[in-house]
Amino acid sequence: MLVLLILLPLLFGVAVLLRPPAAAKWWALGGTSLCLAIGAMLVGRFFANASPDVPFQAQGSFAWLPALGLNLSVGIDSVATLLIGLTLLLGPICVGASWTAIPQHRARLFYGWLLVLQAAMVGVFAARDLLVFYTCFEFTLLPMFVMINEFGSTNRHKAATKFFLYTFTGSIIALAGLVYTAWAVGTRATGVDGFTLDIATLTEHASHVLTAREQALVLLAMLCGFAVKVPLFPFHTWLPLAHTEAPTAGSVILAGVLLKLGTYAMYRFVLPLVPHAVLEHAPAVAILAIIGIIYAGLICWVQTDVKKLVAYSSVSHLGFCVLGLFALNSAGVTGSVLYMLNHGLSTGALFLLVGFMYERYHTRDMREIGGLGAKMPIWSTFMVFFVMSSVGLPGLNGFPSEFLCTMGAFISHTGWTSGAARHVGATWGPLGPWFGFAAGTGVIVAAIYLLAMVAKMVWGTLREPAVHHGEHDHHAGGPHLPVDLTAREIMTLLPIGVLCIVFGLFPTQTLIGAIESDVNAQVAFVHERSGEAPTEHEAHFAQQEHRQQRDAGRDEQIAGVKP
Amino acid sequence: MTLADTDLHSYLPILILFFAAAGFAVANIVLTFLIGPRRDGARKSVSYESGMNPVGTARKRFNVRFYLIAMVFLVFDVEVVFLYPWATTFGNLDPQSSHAGLWLFRILFFLLTTVVAYLYGYRKGVFRFD
Amino acid sequence: MTDKLALVWPEIWLFVTTCVVMVVGLSPDLRVRKLCGWISALGLVVAIGAAVPVAHAGGLFPSITPYAKGMIGVVGLMLLPLLAGTVDRDLDAAIESGKATFSALRSNRAEFYAFFLFSLTGLMLTASADDLIWLFLALELTSLPTYIMVTISTRGTRSQEAGVKYFFLGALGAAIFLYGFALIYGATGTTDLAEIAAAFRAQSEAGGLNTIGVAGLAVALIGLCFKIAAVPMHMYAADVYQGAASGVSAMLAFVPKTAGFLAIIMLCGAVGWTHGATHDSLPAPIYILLWVIAAATMFTGNLLAIRQSSVKRILAYSSVAHSGYMLVGVIAGPGSGHGTFWDNGIAAVLFYLLTYGVTNVGTFAVLASIQKPNGEEADDIADIRGLHGTRPHLAGAMLLCVLSLLGMPPLLGFFGKVGLFTSAISAGEIPLVIVLGLNSAIAAFYYLRIARAAYLEPADEHVETRAGPIPQRVFAAVLSASAVVLLLTVAQMLMERSVTASGYHAPHAGMADTPHEALDLTRADD
Fold first, then answer.
1. Are A275 and A529 in contact (CB under 8 A)?
2. Beta strands at A412-413 and A70-76: parallel, antiparallel or unpaired
3. Global ipTM
């Protein structure tokens, strides 16, 4: 079923390329909807069978390149399942959002790559092998590059190149770190014969074989790749550019899923592979995250371009996500995983709304346009709703995630290891109240800039651009759009809105309940493994022993062959 | 250490050959000078340049066939360099040994390549002097 | 002696094919002349067939020949359709329209194909070399025909300039590595590679390597840098690749490079990866030399490629950079000897050579398939702009090949690079891995330019291109692009073969004393 979810979009992508351009969007809609249906079944089946003893379901493996230790293996735990669900949900929504924005003669290129992108994203979440993960992780770059480069606005070439180079550079360094880990496990861990890229094996052994120094270096390498993707301050500069230039569907996917690849990779690799270094360096990462939260928030405050504002708000929000992750306690990590989902929903919806407005007015400058409340009531209603969700209004989905992340940072305390006096309610972790406090100011900043945006865009006197910014060549001859949202556009927003309310009102019954056991197991694992790393001497000794065992094994083999 | 202790005495024939060659050249010049008849003249005293008139620029264009012929000469000349040592040692081989056939096959293969070279030259028109 | 003959049957078949092509190519009948390509292909197929079953040969890398010769044959077969129609096109057209009659002296077809096969013969001989003299002769047989092929590949003065440049620098390179060979001979007293290895081993066990020997190795390696287009002998690459026809450039990017790497692997094998503090690296001077060359080559190639506007020059400098990547594998060495791919740098280099050769054909084939209005092949990046609109299959081929060269997963080139990554990490070369990673990222910059121009951007209005007259070249491009994907299905087999090929027969000090098994002609006297 998982493999089907990866292959099906690819097949539909080929179909899009082969069918006439007029049919492209129908094929894309069909493909993504079919995947969504299968995905719904997958999610349903997963949680019907979920039990804490079997964290990974729907596993499958195919030995492809044993010479490199590469198996095509997949499998999902609850976190991956939910993120796959998010990806699949955004698929038809993106197709619907691009229905009129993409000119027909280029539709095949757009929808073909959109489907490929979906396959790659599902692959990242489903991968149980390092190279499968890395392949899919890298392969998301190319469709996104094409989308920005071809369907973006004026500055798109620079944006596409910057996006590609930033993330490509980062992930190659991350690959070096991951391969180093795999090498260390393959040559030191007892019971592991040779090079393996199996994520489960690596997770089991990595923290036992990497010395403290190696863990720090591997952490640095992995952060190079994943922090760029998140993006964490100071690696965030590609994101506003890419978001501003990307077409609506591209922005939605970028904000909704691609950024989560970075945080998901941190959750899946950084925490369990190098727990010792994570514990040691978590405050540094958390400080970067907090700088990102406040700095990006302040930039948002002075933005006039509404899409750029939403883009910078992503940087700010993802800071919470990373902060929660590095709080290393149940509350923080749960909040972080919730954040991945909820940010995808609400920011994705905000990008959709900005895109719908842009399609009508061809400007995103808040000095030229505003006060749309009277003219576009439906649009404005959705706008206010999703801004509230993004701000973290209790009762909507943004609140539990933001609250848990901040609380996680607040109560996470090293007192547990140092033996100092413990705060009331404090749990084990490397951060502390000051981190929570600093992040909390970010919440206030977020409220300021988002509400200021709503005030300008929705309320006040109506401001419309004096001239329609010419006839954009993409739209020459395109269908004329009505003043307010069409039924198609409402259909793309409605499912997100419903989920926002459901996840907001019943977080414990839905999301938290689903991921609780996996997240707690992960936190307990990090907790257990972060205490001590092997010394260099031990690592060297383990390597010697491992080599002797392999040599012995080889001698036995040779002796066995000879009569 | 005396001369006899070294291997140098084995180079004696070469030394003799060297002196013989030098002596032959010197003897010829001296003998013609002594016994040859003398008929001097303007034409006789100009420097000899392969029968051509030694007047004019040295950067004269001449037929590209000279190059081709030079190349063909090299091909067949170098071939002899290989053939000669082969011929001198082949007789030493035991006709019954397995080496003999192999060595014969090798030189035949080598000669085949010269045949191909010849065919190539022929097709290319190197031997046509029109 | 007969064993050695069995080893070189592929070369003999290629040579026989060469002889046939040389004569057939001069036939007055155009249809017979056009058979040259097919005969060459047949010869290559037979050569592959003769190479693959040879299981074991002598020398330091006893099992290298089947893989290396098979690879050479396969890439050679892919190069053939790309080389089609490089020479004699004007002459054939004139004859067909009745304007001229056939003149053997003006036709270059026979020589062109014959030189191509000669060069591949030399390359295969390099793979089976077990002796310095043999190695030198094989390297020269590989290179000499390419000088002429560059010169006659187009009718412009540019390729003549390129040919002369290539020849003089090639002669310089040959002189340098020959000097190195002489010093090695001076230090060890033998030209047999296995005996040299034994002598070096004995020296290092006795206290230290002979300084002259190490100096000889260093000089020889620097000379071989010319063959692989590595710093400091890389200067010719851009001019020569640009001056030659695209087909010949593609050949230059594979044939001399492969010869150079085979020679470098053999020379490094002769001194062995058994030195240093932990007895698992090259001797310090050689190690430092190769390290510096590798890093400098990667940076030079990639940084210079960014500034170019000609696709051929970009590919030339990227070819320089790829040599740097592969040197990382050479530095890493054959690893633990457990017969595994991931810690074996030599296997990684051999695998990378195959992926690079296969992929590179495609990029040049795309260029060769497009013609500018003046009849020249496409060269500038503006010439391939808008390719997706007029010739989508070529644009797709360019995209795939360029992404594979970039190392984009899951294409073939990625796995080549992963092999280098893992082997270098196993050898503890973390800084070099970082350099390699950074350079892969720099390379993304110019590869993306090519990919974007071919696959996404609209055509410039004032640049006019049309389909080239040779359909075989389009076939070569499509073939290479499909190989980039389809070879993945047999990648496991290829990796296993490359591991077998890299099987390193480590020398032991006693070997130098074993009597030389040569034919003693004087014995038959009595």
1. yes
2. unpaired
3. 0.86
